[in-house]
Amino acid sequence: MKRSYLPALAAFFLLAGAMATGCGDGVGPGGALVGGACATDGQCAQGSRCETGGDYPGGMCTVTCSRIGDCPGGTICTDKKVCMLTCTLTRDCRAGYACKGKKRVDKLAEALVCAKD
């Protein structure tokens, strides 16, 4: 009796595709964990919250942090004790934000993050 490997192979490619696109990590200009726009905490991923106000145009989903290692990949803990998206260029950030140097939580250096334009 021959065994079909098609279902397992299909599942493998679906999972690989999801991982390659970053699905589920929620980090980026549209990320529900860190970086995405929001008006309320409910629009952000579990474990994340919505920061609003003048420093966060359109709101920003973020994670509270107290040291560099508290933040997910692609983000860094700033001196305001929130994880912010790291960037190289302003085009890495969403509208209303620019790639700027901000103090890290350890105050040893600055990091380029997506901050209010």
Tell me what you see in this structure:
By secondary structure, the chain is α+β, with helices and mostly antiparallel strands. The chain has one domain (26-116). It is 13% helix and 22% strand. The protein has one helix and six strands; from the N terminus they run H-E-E-E-E-E-E. It is globular and about 35 Å long. It starts with 5 loop residues before the first helix and ends with a strand.
The total count of helices amounts to 1
Molecular shape: globular
Beta-sheet strand percentage?
15-25%
How many structural domains are formed by the residues? 1
Biggest sheet, in brief?
2 strands, antiparallel
* Average of the residue pLDDT scores: 84
User: Which ranges are low-confidence, i.e. pLDDT below 50, for 5 or more consecutive residues?
Assistant: 5-24
Give, in order, the helices and strands. HEEEEEE
**Radius of gyration using CA atoms only:** 17 Å
